[in-house]
Amino acid sequence: MRHPAGEHPLDPSGYDAELQRHDRLLRRACGVRPHDHVLDIGCGIGQTTRAAARTARAGGALGIDISASAVARAREIARTEGLGNVTFENADAQVHRFPQERFDLAISRFGTMFFDDPVAAFANIGRTLRPAGRLVMMVWQPRERNEWNVAIRRSLAGPDGPAAAASAGPDPFSLADPPAVKEILGAAGFADIAFTDVHEPVYYGPDVAAALDWVHGFTCTGEALKRLDPAAAARVVGRLREMLSAHLSDDGVWFDSRAWLITARRP
Ligand SMILES: C[S@@+](CC[C@H](N)C(=O)[O-])C[C@H]1O[C@@H](n2cnc3c(N)ncnc32)[C@H](O)[C@@H]1O
């Protein structure tokens, strides 16, 4: 339900702001070194790619994303910031022909949950890692443990029931189950697979209007509103506004969230 496949409007502060509390933990786990070559999977507009490139001064970072508009924006920001060791590729990480054994580290901030065939995708990523290369990624824990998703779905569904909020799109919770992920990564050739519980809130904006704007960009919101007549759509927006108001505190709109920080290694 989270803006998969780059369908979210490219507000440069949006996703970076939402995940500000997660980003710190991801960076620490990545432990990028000055000579590293880093691959950022599903990089979006590239905040994590640029951060990796800044640390990998003698190496570099490649961000890959299936969304052409996200990659165009990522390139633009990197150019504006004058970063010379970061590049971006508009491609599907599941099938892209990466150079073999090129990268020391593959990272991802919520960009690996949308593969059609996760074993094939992670095997493809594994082939571009050097022996002993690491994979460090953040993914959502199950839907029920993510207050933001439960609250939004409830608002979208309202008295019309959950069908109104059903989304046929890619599943952001597809890597939520550790045993299943262990099986996927193991089948893809990874070892030393470990999970760390990340319990940090997500930020939706400084006020209700900004948060509503952000939620409007979610695939599930767009799909639900598209199916409704104008009066019913207005009721949904009213419920969303009320729900977001209930989550407004002095420093903006926040929701509880649970993620896994997953680490693994190519043998
Ligand atoms: C939730 S967003 C996260 C973006 C970015 N990592 C960040 O933290 O700002 C997921 C991203 O994964 C990308 N994505 C989805 N499927 C992909 C695939 N098969 N290959 C590459 N990127 C993909 C989407 O286009 C989207 O930009």
UniProtKB/TrEMBL annotation:
Pfam families: Methyltransf_25 (PF13649). One of its GO terms (molecular function) is methyltransferase activity. Residues 38-133 form the Methyltransferase domain. SUPFAM superfamilies: S-adenosyl-L-methionine-dependent methyltransferases. GO terms for biological process: methylation. Keywords: Methyltransferase, Transferase. The keyword Transferase applies. The keyword Transferase applies. This is Class I SAM-dependent methyltransferase. It comes from Actinoallomurus liliacearum. The lineage of its organism: Bacteria, Bacillati, Actinomycetota, Actinomycetes, Streptosporangiales.
